[in-house]
Each structure stands twice: as C-alpha cells, then as structure tokens.
Amino acid sequence: MFWVPFFHKSQVSCYNIVFEAKPGGLMDQFTEVRSGREAVEIAKRVIRDLSPWDYDNAKDIVLTDELAWLIGGFAPTVRKPVGRLPSGKAVMALGDTAVTHDPIAAQGANNASNMAHHVLQRIIAHDNHPFDADWMNDVFEEYWEAKGKYMYAFTRALLEPITPAAAEVLQAGTQMPAIADAFFTNFDNPQDYWPWLMDLSEAKKWIATQMQTASAVKEGTA
Fold first, then answer.
1. Boundary-marking domain end, from 114, 135, 156
2. What is the pTM of this model?
C-alpha cells in the first residue's frame, strides 16, 4: 500500500493510494471492480482489515473525480525495441512499450524520461542518416547498458523473492533514518545501487559506511 501526496489537475491537494496485491492474497479484492464507488469501498475495507492504524485517515475518502481510479495487472517485461507497421516501415518502442516496470519502485516514468532523452540525443547526433531498424536496435542497446538494465533490476530486486542484499538494506533503513534517506536518494539513478543491492557482503559494507558517516555527522554537530 502506497500513500503518495498528489496535486490533482483540478488544483486540489490529495493522496494517490496504490494497492499492489499478490494474486490470491488478502489484498487481491479489486479484480471485479467496475466503478469508482466500488473501488473506494473496497479500498476502505482493505485498509481497515490490513492496515487498521491508517483507517481513521481513510474512512471518509472520496474520489477527486469519477475517473480517478484504475485497476489492472501486468508482468515486468523487456521487449524488442523495433516493431513493423503493415507498410513494412520500422517503428521504435519508447518508455513502457519497450520496458514495462512493476510500479513498486516508481521506475516507469524514470525509464520513459531517460530513454526519451537518450533517443533525442542520438537523433540529433545522427544528422541526415537513415533511422533504420539497425539504428533503433543500437540506440536501445546503448540505453539499456547505460541505465535501462539498472532500473529494471532495481525494481525486480524489491519484488518477491526479494534479494538478501535488498532485504538487509531495507531492514537497516527501518532502524536508521540516514540509511533510509541514502537508499531513497538513488531512486532517480538506480545504477548507484550497484553492487550493494545485489551482493550481501557489499550491502553490509554499505550499511556500515552509512552508519559511520551518520555517527560522524552527529558527533560533529553535537
């Protein structure tokens, strides 16, 4: 369950509440929802039953507008970057059409904006040469190696079964705000999670370093 402060298009401050349910799990109650009213009532029930400490904040929630709800499910997927139109011309996938992320780490928008920027720079540098399928594949592979694969692996690391290294870091973050802050700082550049997000020994070293830094800062300001 994610409660995200949000500014609605009607210029209303509100919360965006996201439920990520495991199929068949206790939270998996939204599959048959067909209206915003149903979505809100089930959301209240789920919060009451699974997160009762939040219920006082949720018992009176209403939709900001009739279209402000969505349900669905998908699997994280990396696709080939080139498609073919009926005419035979090549088209290049961007953003979610190229790489679909689970929303748990908020990398969908990060991927889309970074990939668009990368492709734009390559278009500018390409001048008047043909933008053919080989060029599209090369540009995607460059992006994947530089950033894309890290966003994808970061997201997958937080899904079940979570990697031991990621579990170690998240547990440490619940005990020490400085570690949590350092962890979340890397969301916009997931490559900075390497190697400690995937290697348990590196994770322990990283945690120790963060604790030493936080201790030094505390002593320096005491």
1. 156
2. 0.81
